[in-house]
Amino acid sequence: MRPTGISGSDSLVRVSRFAHPAGDRHAEMMPQERPPRPPADLNSLSPKIWPRNSARTGGAVTVGGVDVRDLARDYGTPLYVLDEDDVRSRCRDYAEAFGDSDVHYAGKAFLCRELARWIDEEGLGLDVCSGGELAVALSVDFPPERITLHGNNKSAAELERAIQAGVGRIVADSFEEIARLGHLAERHGVRPRVLIRVTTGVEAHTHEFIATAHDDQKFGFSLNNGSAAEAVRRVLALPQLELLGLHSHIGSQIIDTAGFEVAAQRLTALLAQIKDEHGVVLPELDLGGGYGIAYVEADEAPDIKVIADSLREIVAKVCANAGVPVPRLTVEPGRTIVGPGGVTVYEVGTVKDVEGLRTYVSVDGGMSDNVRTALYGAEYTSVLASRSSDARPMLSRVVGKHCESGDIVVRDLWLPDDLAPGDLLAVAATGAYCRSLANNYNYQPRPAVVAVRDGVARVIVRGETEEDLLRGQS
Ligand SMILES: Cc1ncc(COP(=O)(O)O)c(C=O)c1O
User: Fold this and answer.
1) Whose CA is nearest to atom 9 of ligand 1?
2) Kindly report the CA angle at 283 between 333 and 216, in degrees rounded to 5?
3) Mean pLDDT, the chain, whole residue set
4) Ligand 1 pocket, 332 CB below 6 A?
5) H or E element: which one contains 288?
């Protein structure tokens, strides 16, 4: 049975443009997953979700001072738009909040040559997790000593390239890799600096954290079953490797900060154990990334200053109790740096009502440019961006053009019921894990990425063409 329908002032909203054939009562009933109530103003851009330099000017949405209609005209749709000042200011927020700790941007969230330059200019380090990401960084002369290489199955070639480039840290993720690193270090006559990735038993999920007793995943060395301690022994046994510290990453889009605190406590306890067993004081502790951002109004993103203060306090306290010096901390934010400054602009192609349920709004992209909704039920919000509207809110689902019914961009949202083909929609907070996870499903070319700042737009990643898609085929 569906939940009860809309009442009172909600009669001003419309679930779909057509009544349900079973009658008015059905037509007023909300769908199974009841969406949030419509916002008071469909035209508003919530500052906690939209880029810092976005606004509605003369009806249309502007980002970085550039009107989305001009962007769509000049660069086509779908289009990724990145508010450069938003991204840069978040880098500075992190640097300020974490003070004398190191902040490394996690390139997997989104990486291109220009973004790597911004990260360098803002003084952050960079995490890469493949030879390809490393190549991007090296191609713009990103200082190798500020690069960390991650990955649960780095190839020998990737490790070799990282060693030859002189990257600052390599995060060891398996016993095989420790052996490979030892071998490569000897061959090249260098002493790579190594962190050990520890699985702390804290399993974090979106919006929650669950402390677990088992570590059922592919990354890292388990703390609980003693693998982490064994990895430390093996690295210390290889004089050609320099063990700098421990690393942990507990998950992503984490709103509740308690999981970070538990992980920090457990890692610090391991540092103390290493000092007792080996007489070695490890100077570094990398606590990973994973801090959440607001995708929809209901999300409460943690304040980065609060996280920074709390992590420092915990590590200092546990170190004092255990009698070990406080290590230098590193954090690896990805989403929080680049997510909120990104917006995807789409053109509406069709507007289809489905019997008293909702209206399906099809746009010219979808799961090829943003697979997160289909992949793990991510939530987004969107507005009519090419004009404002005073029309009634219409319960909508924004869907893509791909041949999958799971090809959903925004599952539940309210759009004005005068929405029509040719209108532009902007989807907020798409800066992270959208372009980096983009694909060519249905031979859809991946859209361009345009950086906007002070009223000027410039392409930082060219959109793909049909020729790009056919290249390399016999
Ligand atoms: C090791 C590591 N560090 C940092 C990150 C960045 O996480 P986020 O973008 O959620 O901050 C990830 C994401 O998967 C990761 O695996």
Assistant:
1) 334
2) 55
3) 90
4) yes
5) none
Sign of the dihedral defined by the CA atoms of residues 225, 227, 229, 233, in that order: positive
DSSP string spanning 384-414? E-SS---SPEEEEEEE-SSS-TT-EEEEEEE
422 and 284 in a single domain? The answer is no
pLDDT tens profile 320-377: 988 899 999 999 999 999 999 999 999 999 999 998 889 999 999 999 999 999 998 8
Residue ending a domain, among 322, 338, 354, is 338
Q: How far is the CA of 413 from the centre of ligand 1 (A)?
A: 28
Q: Residue 250 has which token pair?
A: 């507990």
Residues 105 and 180 in one domain: yes
Locate the ligand 1 atom nearest the alpha carbon of residue 432 and give its number.
9
Q: Provide the whole-model pTM.
A: 0.92
Domain membership flag for residue 2: no
CA distance 426 to 310: 36
Predicted pLDDT at 314: 87
Alpha-carbon distance values, 27 to 4, 149, 373, 411, 416 (Å): 11, 55, 27, 19, 18
Mutation pick for ligand 1 pocket among 252, 286, 291, 435 (CB with most ligand atoms within 8 Å):
252
Q: What is the largest CA-CA distance in the chain?
A: 79
| pLDDT tens-digit series, residues 60-88 | 999 999 999 999 999 999 999 999 999 99
Please name the residue whose Cα sits nearest to atom 5 of ligand 1.
289
User: Which of 199, 209, 249 for a ligand 1 pocket mutation test, highest count of atoms within 8 Å of Cβ?
Assistant: 249
Nearest atom (ligand 1) to Cα of 290: 10
Same domain? For 257 and 277 the reply is yes
Write out the residue range of the structural domain in which residue 309 sits: 84-338
User: What CATH number does the domain containing 105 carry?
Assistant: 3.20.20.10
Distance of alpha carbon 108 from alpha carbon 433, whole angstroms? 7
> Of 365, 363, 361, whose CA–CA distance to 444 is shortest?
365
- Cα 468–chain centre separation: 26
Examine the domain organization and report whether 221 and 326 are in the same domain. yes
Please indicate whether residue 50, judged by its CB atom, sits closer than 6 Å to ligand 1: no
**Is residue 319 annotated as part of the catalytic site, yes or no?**
no
Candidates 150, 350, 141, 352; CA nearest to 247 is: 150
